[in-house]
Specification:
Blueprint: H1 10-38, H2 48-60, H3 70-102, H4 104-117, H5 126-133, H6 137-161, H7 165-173, H8 178-215, H9 221-228, H10 234-262, H11 264-268
């Protein structure tokens, strides 16, 4: 039998999914043991027990100076910035995507401009944003929005262009206005695509958030990681990195389930979401 036709069983699927994680943990444990055998005070790969103990401490014990539990305070600050930035980008992209996709005049004037903006490295704009908006929350949120909006706009406008022309002609024949076509014909069809595009943009959004927090912030997951890096505090950095990964996975999973519930028809048609 060819490998392309080999279908693993459900139990095999679970084992194969867990295997990379197990190997990663095993590689870390072995590497930590080797380094600590040469240097018991090694900070690069602390013992797994020390990492778990430190993570539990950060999640349960208040900080001595601020009297807040650092992990939860940093998480709340970062998630607020991420939610506002991604939400603003999604709303703006939805409007622009509909306008560019439906209106030839708007497409002629804006499509090339959006494509040009999408080529600008967002992190290169960070100093400008700090100068214009200051070092507060606004600059961090704007960076996230600027970083992912062009991608969302291009993706959604392309999806609008893929709507069969027959649907638009029939809507006009029935007397629908441009506004009605946008709301009742185009919007329902690109809504699942918006969720998918937001899921795909979460990785870059986290990157921009961490970068902004690392440079100018008083709290946040990125701020904490870059604050303790000077002390080589891997027992803090590793739990924070793992926590960011879990948060990103949870958000992505939630958006996927939301899409499946709200737009079951799109999934029934086999659209990859």
């Amino acid at each position: 039998m060819r490998l392309i036709n080999l279908r693993p069983s459900r139990s095999t699927l679970v084992l194969l999914a867990m295997l990379p994680f197990v190997l990663t943990v095993l590689a870390y444990v072995v590497g930590s043991d080797i380094r600590r055998a040469d240097n018991p005070r090694d900070k690069l790969l602390p013992a797994p027990a020390a990492v778990v103990e430190r993570a539990a401490e950060m999640a349960t014990e208040p900080d001595r100076r601020s009297q807040t539990i650092l992990l939860w305070a940093d998480t709340w600050a970062s998630l607020q910035r991420l939610a506002i930035g991604v939400g603003a980008a999604a709303a703006l992209a939805l409007v622009l995507g509909l306008v560019i996709g439906l209106l030839p005049i708007a497409r002629a004037g804006l499509a090339s401009y959006v494509a040009f903006l999408s080529l600008i490295p967002p992190l290169a704009l960070l100093p400008i944003l700090f100068i214009v908006f200051g070092l507060g929350e606004t600059s961090k949120i704007v960076l996230i929005a600027i970083g992912i909006t062009p991608f969302l706009v291009r993706d959604l406008s392309q999806r609008v262009l893929e709507i069969p022309q027959e649907q638009l002609v029939k809507a006009q024949t029935l007397g629908a206005s441009t506004w009605q076509i946008a709301i009742r014909v185009a919007l329902p069809q690109i809504a699942p695509r918006l969720v998918q595009a937001v899921r795909l943009s979460l990785g870059p959004a986290w990157l921009f958030l961490i970068a902004a927090e690392a440079i100018a912030a008083q709290e946040g997951l990125g701020y904490r990681i870059f604050l303790v890096r000077r002390y080589l505090a891997m027992d803090v950095i590793l739990p924070y990195v793992c926590w960011i990964t879990l948060l990103a996975f949870a958000i992505d999973w939630s958006l996927k389930r939301l899409s499946e519930r709200a737009f079951a028809w799109a999934h029934a048609e086999g659209e990859s979401l």
